[in-house]
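We close this part of the discussion by returning to an individual protein. Part of our work consisted of pairing the sequence of a single chain with a tokenised description of its backbone. What the numbers capture is local backbone geometry rather than side-chain detail. The amino acid sequence and the backbone structure tokens for this protein are reproduced below.
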Amino acid sequence: MHFRRLSARILALALALGAASGALAQGAYPTKPVKIIVPYSAGGPADIYARFVGDRLQKAMGQPFVIENRPGAGAIIGTDAVAKSAPDGYTLLMMSNTHTVNESLFTKKPYSLLRDLAPIAPINYSDLILVVHPSVPAKNLKELIALAKAKPGALNYASSGPGTPYHMAGELFKAMAGVDLVHVPHKGSAEARTDVLAGNVQMMFDAITTMAPLVQSGKVRAIATSGKTRSSIMPDVPTLNEAGVPGYDAVIWLGMMAPAGTPRPVIDALNANIQKIVNAPDVKETWAKQGAVPMRMSPDEFAKFIEQDIQKWAKVVKFSGAQVD
């Protein structure tokens, strides 16, 4: 009996030490550099804010947060790489509502978003802005719609790839305004933007955070913004809703995810630090000038938000008829 009691005590002690060791290991996270994969090309909103947040996380958590761009296939290539990574918190995904659209837009995809990835935290959202090259004769939304209806299929719009907010904003506009525009997908928003600036493609929905300076310099003409209310950084530009497409509403939002199975203490640590970052007064002030609005949610709240956005865009995909094999 004495031997059994001693053995039980030893076993209990070993289990307690093991649990403490595991908690200590998780509590020490991160102990080496963390990679944030951005499944888009450099220069777009996801890349810009991944670098911003990564720099703040590095200062807060004491290890480098390294950004790696892996664009392609409407964000699927980079996302699949994260989904197949070790669930240890050292490979993260900078994602957007491209990912929620892709759940219904792509008939074949090597991962399922909420099955293979774990939500960490949202980052921010911003309005999109519809711009045209100065060579396009339309000066406002009504004139643009009239031009598109007079010449069906003659006007092109650029996007950073199938399923991206820029693509779906264009498809939603086509469906709600009753116009025939040709979608010209690119590998990233920088390439799409360059084609519009060069006049190779006539128009584009782009994040107001990156396009506003180009509007202000006269390189493109602003037609309308995509949110429910006018943008604080471009208050003179009307919304699509007020300018001729009632009910129109589309934004771009960003967030962070990890491979499914990543320990919850790691998820919680990242969430807590990201929430501190986006809630910092200097960050709010800086982002407000760029037209970006901070978002704050727990991992569970973010999971529900993602699920609802998947359902929202599934309806838009069906309504617009857009689909990618």
Q: What stands out?
A: The domain at 129-243 is CATH 3.40.190.10 (D-Maltodextrin-Binding Protein; domain 2).
